[in-house]
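Field reference: "sequence" (input) and "structure" (output). Example, Phosphoenolpyruvate-protein phosphotransferase:
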Amino acid sequence: MQRLQGIAVSPGVAIAEAAVFGNEGFRISRRFLSRESVNTEIDRLDQAIAAAAKELDTNRQRVAEQLGDDYAAIFSAHLQMLLDPKLHNELEQMIRDRHYSPEYSVSRAMRRYAKVFLSLEGDTMAERANDIFDIEKRLLRHLLGERREGPTQLTSEVLILAHNLTPSETANLNPDFVKGFVTEVGGPGSHTAIVAEALNIPAVVGVGSFLTEVSGGETVIVDGDNGLVILQPDEETIARYRHEVDEQLSLAAKLETFRDLPSDTKDGVHVTMLGNIELPSEVKQCLDRGAEGIGLYRTEFLFLTREVQPDEEDHYQAYHEVLQATGGAPVVMRTLDLGADKIPNFPLPDDERNPFLGLRSTRLALKHVDMFRTQLRAMLRASVEGPMRIMFPLITNLIELRRAKMVLSDAMEDLDEEGIPFSRDIQVGMMVEVPSAVVMMDHFVEEVDFFSIGTNDLIQYALAVDRSNKDVASLYTGSDPSILRLIKMAIDTANQHDRPISMCGQMCGNPIYTMVLLGLGLRTFSVVPAAIPEIKRVCRSVTIPQCEELAARALSLESARDVRTALRDEIIRILPDQPV
């Protein structure tokens, strides 16, 4: 049994068969052969080895001709390893005696060899491990051919173990089959993490190199509450975690009772509970859990889930579907928030060395005005279907906001001239995601109808922590006193000028922060569907004076650790069975 520590980004526990995906997206499952097919599968292995050997020899000759024998030596070494009789005998034995498929045999054998080299000290040994990985990939390409299975093409319940998952891959995962995932890289607050939370599947990221330690088909436990991954768990550990899964199911059943109850505090203060969605299909999940509307529709996932850029009709159909599904409940649509850790369908600058500080979100939209106007036209067209608001992300200064509003005005004029109806009194708001927006809110209040605090980026920019970098993950936290002070400044300024303000970042979907946010004056939460019952439950268990006392205490503390301890102790005191 082996325990790996990573970063918890989506809570819960899952126990299932591992589906291992390397850098090239191969999935190697533990497929057993019938006795009759053994000889055929050995022939297929031999053909793959011959094809890979021919490929290597061709590469060796080409490099030798162009660069000399010294540079071609790497291919000679690969060829020698590939054609080693000991390797062939081992693979054939696994197929004959254990009835493993050739793919699984190759993966098992090569990863075992690589693990030995990685355990030895020195750069040369690490290079030998990389050589083995290269041979493995080459063989698997020939064995699998067109039968490769990506993480979005699963047909059985698994835990995905991968080097990394892009936001678009994560968005396309089917939660009916994917019970959780683990990645070698990544950090909290990344958009991959956000989607995992929205899918309500346990996830741990930033574990470091571990894919050589596990093969497809093995049982793995993902503990998304504590950031743990357990490989080859023993029966006692499996039994303990199965009990924990049962307890979580019991709590989930208890939380279902909060669906139709208002989010009022014990002393009668109403808290508006909204939902965050990435895709139109998620509206039902929000409403089924008692959301009063949609506080954040991340429209950039229209770009991330398709091969080509969406046109105006694609945008319109998605927005129309969301507004129809809400049945008259309010919807806040955020304009495209692409760049940085997302993968747009158009190129970013090649010299983008610091993408989180570069061309992204509204900056990117203003650089591609035609694309921006297309989205805004579609939003305006859809606005006749129900109460919709438009919100601009990552606004850092007044000029940026005014330019975005100008593009919106141009889109309105275009539709007017074409005689296309739209809501003329549509409300326009902005995200509060950078410290400059907080500092300048007394000016922004004159320009917008509402605000929404995006804590994922606000934490990142205020603390100078790359939210996707596991090496500084411990510094990325909403418990830092500076973050609480920025949130209080934003809420106070909005309230003083009678502007509605909500929060839609991951922070407000975590029950440990509910009380302190209420104490800071927040009265509108927008969270992922799965978090709605939990946050409702906390709201209905506390009074505003209790929350204000906790907030005052938290603001007086000096470190994130002290703040988190205070918040954790208070929520456990009030709700002892609440996971934190």
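The mean pLDDT is 86.
The radius of gyration is 27 Å.
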